[in-house]
Write a structure and sequence with these properties.
Helices cover about 95% and strands about 0% of the residues. It is an all-alpha fold and about 80 residues long.
């Protein structure tokens, strides 16, 4: 009977040790997922900033094109001939 109790205690210690290692691995995996999530958040922020910058440049470009088309037309219409 004492042998069985000793064997059970040894199994219990091994399982406890195994459980702790598994918990440690899950903690490492969770930390890595948190790191990846933070990186995606940073990338989303950079992409949003670049998209806003590109939108502003596009609006300015379209405005300059429209102005370059309209300026000669307006000067022709307003010039006395």
């Amino acid at each position: 009977m004492a042998r069985l109790e000793g064997a059970y205690e040894q199994i219990d210690r091994r399982l406890t040790n195994f459980e702790q290692r598994v918990d440690d691995r899950f903690a490492q995996i969770d930390a890595r997922f948190a790191h990846v999530d933070a990186r995606f958040t940073q990338l989303d922020t950079k992409i949003d900033r670049n998209r806003a910058h590109t939108d502003r440049q596009f609006i300015w470009t379209v405005g300059l094109i429209v102005l370059s088309i309209l300026a000669p037309l307006v000067t022709r219409l307003l010039s006395p001939t």
